[in-house]
Design goal:
The complex is a heterodimer of chains A (about 200) and B (about 180).
Chain A (H helix, E strand, L loop, with lengths): L8 H8 L5 H13 L1 H18 L8 H9 L16 H34 L9 E3 L5 H4 L1 E5 L3 H10 L3 E5 L2 E5 L3 H7 L8 E6 L2
Parallel strand pairs in A: 4-5
Antiparallel strand pairs in A: 1-2, 2-5, 3-4
Helix pairs in contact in A: 2-3
Chain B lengths: L5 H8 L3 H23 L2 H18 L9 H22 L11 H9 L3 H8 L2 H12 L4 H8 L3 H25 L1
Helix pairs in contact in B: 1-2, 2-3, 2-4, 2-7, 3-4, 4-8, 6-9, 7-9, 8-9
Chain lengths: ~200, ~180
């Protein structure tokens, strides 16, 4: 400490609280013995401390304590916050969603093409087996085509070409094949009234 | 530092009222002393304490344990006391009632001492600092966390608060 300069508040406070290391404490003590301004301050601070430490601790009146419990409202739970996804996590989540959406899109597109063909009434593919839907409940899940000739002939032709085809109640039921494969197989047969139900794999 | 209130706080955060009531029992008198000494009125202090505990209960789900529960609670208490003081300034004073309970009479007499009168005249920052340090025995770091000022500022406020208080008490003694 430079002679003639006063210690700051914190130094004097630490002196009063006896929190100073001994060399610094000795310096302050030397200053106080020569400086009436600082020694007066220290005396006041000690008097203030003694008055405050004589202050009584107080107890909350019982009825006011009880009122706290009676007036506690229902605690509202904070909803758990979800962390934002990182770009990697976002890709991992979105990829399967997009893939599923694409497959659905293709299927819907195929069905709507089928629907428009049936709305047109008959055939598609230049006289080859045409497609209709709504003829029976199965049509909702299985594609229905139409071809010329008799059901027996159509089934026989399909079996010759390697399809699993049977005649059931005047319809030809083809299993384990796609609509496109059946349509191509019957491309030469032309339009007609033989109903062919194609059940997928 | 391990928080001695942590187990009860964890339960209270999940909505356990019993656990919260234990915390109220544990802290209500210290919080009341803080409020009463900083407000200088038993009724206002009790209102502030009640408000503080309600705010604490509602705020517990957001309490992350970044400080001691007591530090967090006392900060809420000081804010509630501050609001109570502001409210009191805009409202007419209630009629003073005769305390029915001897304990209430003790509080009333404590709050009518020359010490309390001097405390009421201190700057608010000094009053809060000296009450926390000299009356409640809080550490510098707790007061620093509570009042959001550095420890050096805490020491300086206690120093000046005590000095100002002694001056006020001296003046009063001279007047009496």
């Amino acid at each position: 400490m430079v002679a003639g300069t006063h210690p700051d508040d914190i130094d004097l406070f630490d002196y009063v609280e006896e929190d100073l290391p001994q060399p610094r404490r000795a310096e302050i003590q030397a200053h106080l013995s020569a400086c009436s301004v600082c020694s007066e301050q220290v005396s006041r601070v000690e008097a203030g401390r003694d008055a405050l430490r004589g202050a009584q601790f107080m107890h909350l009146p019982e009825r006011r304590g009880e009122a706290i419990f009676m007036n506690l409202p229902t605690q509202v739970r904070e909803p758990r916050r979800r962390r934002a996804l990182t770009p990697k996590q976002l890709i991992a989540v979105l990829t399967p969603v997009i893939a599923v959406a694409a497959v659905i899109g293709v299927l819907v597109n195929t069905n709507s093409n089928s629907g428009s063909s049936s709305a047109a009434g008959e055939t598609s593919g230049g006289g080859a087996a045409g497609t209709r839907s709504g003829a029976n409940p199965e049509a909702a899940q299985a594609a229905t085509l139409f071809a010329g000739g008799t059901a027996t002939d159509v089934a026989a032709e399909l079996r010759r070409k390697g399809f699993r085809a049977d005649v059931q109640r005047d319809q030809v039921v083809v299993k384990g094949a796609t609509q496109k494969q059946v349509r191509e197989a019957l491309a030469d047969r032309g339009a007609g009234d033989v109903q062919i139900v194609v059940k997928g794999r | 530092m391990e928080d001695p209130d942590a187990p009860l706080v964890a339960r209270a955060r999940r909505g356990d009222r019993w656990a919260f009531e234990q915390l109220v029992e544990r802290h209500q008198h210290r919080l009341f002393t803080l409020a009463a000494r900083t407000l200088g009125s038993a009724d206002d202090a009790a209102d502030a304490v009640q408000e503080a505990f309600i705010r604490a209960w509602l705020g517990l789900p957001r309490f992350r344990g970044g400080s001691l529960f007591s530090t967090w609670l006392y900060r809420i208490g000081l804010n509630a006391a501050h609001d109570q003081r502001a409210k009191r300034r805009t409202e007419p004073l209630d009629e003073v009632r005769e305390p029915a309970d001897p304990k209430d009479a003790f509080i009333a007499s404590e709050l009518s001492t020359s010490l309390q009168a001097a405390l009421n005249e201190l700057d608010e920052d000094y009053r809060v600092a000296v009450v926390l340090f000299d009356v409640l025995g809080c550490s510098y770091s707790e007061i620093s966390a509570l009042t959001e000022v550095p420890e050096g500022t805490v020491k300086s406020r206690i120093f000046r608060g005590r000095r100002q208080l002694a001056g006020l008490l001296g003046t009063r003694t001279a007047e009496e």
